[in-house]
Structures are given as C-alpha cells and as structure tokens.
Design goal:
This protein has 71 residues and is α+β, with helices and mostly antiparallel strands. The protein is built from two helices and four strands; from the N terminus they run ββαββα. The chain binds zinc ion.
C-alpha cells in the first residue's frame, strides 16, 4: 500500500498493492524514473518516483521482467 498525495488539490489516496506492483513493473519495463498517476479527484497528472514506490513493495515481490525484444 502506498499513499499518494495530490500536489494540486491536496487529495490523498492509497494505491493498492496490485496497482503498486503493476506501476513499478511498467516503469521498470521502460526504465522510467517516474510513474504518472492521475489524481482521482482533479485528474491532474502526478509524478511518483519509482524508487520511492519500490520501498513500499511487499518483501519478496516478483516483478514481471521487461519484455525482451525478439529479433
Ligand atoms: Zn488532485
């Protein structure tokens, strides 16, 4: 569970474990440093540091490896 606070409207909400894992996996696949979430209240884009989200992953989480390009 990762708590996100919107910097625009101050709304805070919690990302579920599954959402968090999916977000980190997707970010790793593209080697992105940030994950972009849209605030459920004001729809502004929120940039979340991937390294920050990783600290909240449950221990032993297996991330989906990035897809390897097929020749
Ligand atoms: Zn907001």
């Amino acid at each position: 569970m990762y708590k996100v606070r919107c910097q625009w409207c101050g709304w805070s909400y919690t990302m579920s474990r599954d959402t968090l894992i999916a977000a980190v996996s997707a970010a790793q696949a593209t080697q992105a440093l940030h994950h972009v979430e849209n605030c459920p209240k004001c729809r502004h884009a929120l940039k979340i540091q991937v390294s920050d989200m990783k600290r909240f992953l449950p221990p032993g989480t297996v991330l989906t490896p990035p897809p390897t390009p097929t020749p």
